């Protein structure tokens, strides 16, 4: 009888340990979700309600050409996409995820995040005339779950900045 209780206790302890160990394997979303969510594999940069730049299937597409001017600030929202092109909503990403970026030339522009805008928004702040590339990442702890092309790659996301002196004030931004 003692041997039976000992074997049963070991079996229960191992089973319980395996359940706890495997419950942490869901990288995006929680086990409480009513349906499965895929990891993001792409993203859209949205300005004034329009998708301006899209990264899907390893390709960057500029869907709308904007003129960025020194002295102005441009608010963007980021929407993440799955393999099927469907949106992965912010509420489906755990708290440990955040937006990160690398700017090729920080003398041309900077990116700021304001807490009140949320973690999937940023402000592009042009500093000087010229062009620079930016890599965006969906970061989780010390690693990235999604990255656009690096700033040294030809197909990286690129922003072109013009001087702020636009006489007629009629420009896209």
Quick check: average pLDDT? 80
Number of helices: 1
Indicate the structural class.
mainly beta
Distance between the termini: 78 Å
Radius of gyration: 22 Å
- What proportion strand? 35-45%
Bin the helical content. Answer: 10-25%
List unreliable stretches of 5+ residues: 10-35, 168-173
Order of helices and strands: HEEEEEEEEEEEE
Shape: globular
Detailed description of the structure:
The chain is globular. The longest helix has 21 residues, at 2-22. The protein has one helix at 2-22; strands at 42-47, 50-56, 59-62, 68-69, 74-81, 87-88, 97-103, 109-112, 121-126, 130-140, 143-147, 157-162. Helices cover 12% and strands 39% of the residues. The relative contact order is 0.18. It has 1 helix and 12 strands, in the order αββββββββββββ. The N and C termini lie far apart (78 Å). The strands form 2 sheets. Strands 1, 2, 3, 5, 6, 8 and 9 form a 7-stranded antiparallel sheet that branches. Strands 4, 7, 10, 11 and 12 form a 5-stranded mixed sheet that branches. The chain is mainly beta and 173 residues long.
At a glance:
The protein is mainly β. It has one helix at residues 2-22; strands spanning 42-47, 50-56, 59-62, 68-69, 74-81, 87-88, 97-103, 109-112, 121-126, 130-140, 143-147, 157-162. The model is unreliable at 10-35 and 168-173 (pLDDT under 50).
Distinctive features:
173 residues; mainly beta; seven-stranded antiparallel β-sheet; five-stranded mixed β-sheet
SSE layout:
Elements (H helix, E strand, L loop, with lengths): L1 H21 L19 E6 L2 E7 L2 E4 L5 E2 L4 E8 L5 E2 L8 E7 L5 E4 L8 E6 L3 E11 L2 E5 L9 E6 L11
Parallel strand pairs: 4-12
Antiparallel strand pairs: 1-2, 1-5, 2-3, 5-6, 5-9, 7-10, 8-9, 10-11, 10-12
């Amino acid at each position: 009888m003692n041997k039976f209780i000992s074997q049963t206790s070991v079996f229960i302890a191992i089973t319980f340990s395996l359940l706890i160990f495997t419950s942490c394997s869901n990288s995006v979303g929680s086990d409480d979700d009513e349906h499965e969510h895929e990891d993001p594999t792409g993203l859209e940069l949205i300005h004034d309600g329009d998708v301006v730049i899209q990264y899907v299937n390893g390709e960057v597409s500029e869907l709308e050409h904007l003129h960025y001017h020194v002295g102005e600030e441009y608010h963007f929202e980021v929407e993440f996409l799955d393999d099927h092109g469907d949106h992965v909503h912010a509420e489906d990403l755990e708290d440990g995820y955040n937006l990160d970026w690398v700017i090729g030339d920080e003398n041309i522009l900077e990116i700021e995040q304001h807490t009140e805008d949320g973690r999937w928004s940023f402000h592009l702040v042009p500093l000087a005339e010229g062009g620079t590339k930016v890599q965006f990442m969906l970061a989780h702890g010390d690693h990235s779950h999604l990255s656009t092309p690096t700033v040294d790659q030809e197909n990286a996301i690129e922003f072109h900045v013009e001087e702020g002196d636009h006489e007629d004030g009629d420009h896209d931004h």
